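Tokens for chain A. Residues wanted.
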């Protein structure tokens, strides 16, 4: 399902549990976050809203230690080169260029 988490298309109490992992910090300002939290509480009988802790040493979106504490300019230089996400992105981009040919020559 794709949609606006601040206006969910479900009846009150539609779910036993609503689980939100690292979403609330992306919905906007404090008022939008409150709307999101109210909506989660409305559609679920119980809920778990998780958000990354700024002081946890591993950046949760990139799975990389300490990078979120660096200045933004440094992050921009480091993330594409030295993170799990950056490595996966490089692998996807280069896979097509370096993949062996599957056609046979007869």
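Reply:
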């Amino acid at each position: 399902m794709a949609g606006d988490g601040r206006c969910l298309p479900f009846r009150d109490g539609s779910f036993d549990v609503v689980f939100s992992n690292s979403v609330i910090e992306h919905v906007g300002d404090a008022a939008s976050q409150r709307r999101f939290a109210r909506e989660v509480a409305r559609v679920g009988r119980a809920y778990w809203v998780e958000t990354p802790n700024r002081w946890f040493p591993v950046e949760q979106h990139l799975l990389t230690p300490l990078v979120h504490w660096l200045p933004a300019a440094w992050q921009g230089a480091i993330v594409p080169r030295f993170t799990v996400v950056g490595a996966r992105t490089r692998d996807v981009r280069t896979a097509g260029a370096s993949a062996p040919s599957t056609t046979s020559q007869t």
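The chain has two domains: 1-51, 56-98. The first helix runs from residue 30 to 43.
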